[in-house]
Structure formats: structure tokens, C-alpha cells
């Protein structure tokens, strides 16, 4: 049984982030709060940095593929890393 989740963005969040980011944040909070298995997998990554490794995506990701040697070096990431 799924338990209901209540989530409210602070009113200042809309000033700090754009609307697509707020929508994504809400989606991720709901996704991981409603699925115990996914939440457990996510919690195993605590202490690490999760990013999207997509060479064509410099808005949500690092702008590099996971196989690119630069992806292993944070200072070489080209994107905004909005997801990670």
C-alpha cells in the first residue's frame, strides 16, 4: 500500500530555481518516497555524487558520456548538473 506524501516547496524555491527544476524535484521526491526498493537503492549511494552522464545534455547533466575520461574529473564537467 502506498502511503500519501505531502510535499510543499518553500515559496522562496520558485525564486531560486526555475519551474522545470521544481517539477523535477517534486517528481523525484514522490518517486523515491513511494517506492521502498528504489529508495533503498538510492540510499546506498549516500556520500557519492550522482550526475547524468549525457554528452549532449549540459542543462541537466555534466555534458559528457560516462565513458569519457573527463567524466571522472569533476573540474572538467561542462554542464550545469541540475539533476546531480
- The secondary-structure class comes to mainly alpha
- Residues in helices, as a percent range: 25-40%
- Domain unit count: 2
On the 0-100 scale, what is the average pLDDT? 80
- Radius of gyration, rounded? 15 Å
Strand content: under 5%
End-to-end distance, in Å?
30 Å
- Poorly predicted ranges (pLDDT <50, ≥5 residues)? none
* Main pleated-sheet profile: none
Number of helices, counting only DSSP H or I runs of 4 residues or more: 3
Please tell me what the overall shape is: globular
Order of helices and strands: HHH
Q: Quick one: how many beta strands?
A: 0
Organism: Geodia barretti
Transmembrane segments: 12-30
Pfam family, one: NADAR
InterPro entries: NADAR, YbiA-like_sf
Structure keywords:
2 domains, single chain, 84 residues, 3 helices, 33% helix, mainly alpha
Amino acid at each position: 500500500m502506498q502511503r500519501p506524501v505531502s510535499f510543499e516547496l518553500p515559496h522562496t524555491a520558485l525564486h531560486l530555481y526555475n519551474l522545470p527544476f521544481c517539477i523535477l524535484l517534486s517528481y523525484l521526491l514522490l518517486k523515491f518516497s513511494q517506492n521502498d526498493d528504489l529508495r533503498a537503492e538510492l540510499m546506498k549511494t549516500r556520500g557519492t555524487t550522482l550526475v547524468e552522464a549525457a554528452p549532449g545534455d549540459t542543462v541537466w547533466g555534466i555534458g559528457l558520456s560516462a565513458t569519457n575520461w573527463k567524466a571522472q574529473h569533476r573540474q572538467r564537467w561542462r554542464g550545469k548538473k541540475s539533476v546531480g
